[in-house]
Amino acid sequence: MTQKKRTPSTYQRNALAPSLLAAAVLFLAPVLLASDWAPVVLYATSILAVIVGWFAVQARHWWWIPVFVAIAVLWNPVMPFPFAGPVWTGIQPAAAVVFLVAGGLIKFPRP
């Protein structure tokens, strides 16, 4: 039995794992924001937005920088905005989709 030799990937997607974590938090955010877990959602989202933004800088995908700066500011846990209601609840899954798209598109060649 011969084994087929795998060719290594030429690209790496470092932003995929933090994007998946952020998307999971944001998809659960409407439930978590109604409980005592609201600060965890804000901290996790803003920190993961900075991490994914940094990977976008490393990959030279400059167009993602303003998107993740905006997410980091809107979900800022230090001085949170008093957002509430159906619009804020609807923005959570939209931001999760942004994280998923960015995680799939931000890639750079392996050294």
UniProtKB/TrEMBL annotation:
Query: Any transmembrane segments, and where?
Result: 15-34, 40-57, 62-81, 87-106
What keywords is this UniProt entry annotated with? Membrane, Transmembrane, Transmembrane helix
InterPro entries per UniProt: DUF6804
Domain of life according to the entry: Bacteria
Pfam families for the chain: DUF6804
Descriptive protein name: Apolipoprotein N-acyltransferase
Naturally occurring in which organism (per UniProt): Arthrobacter russicus
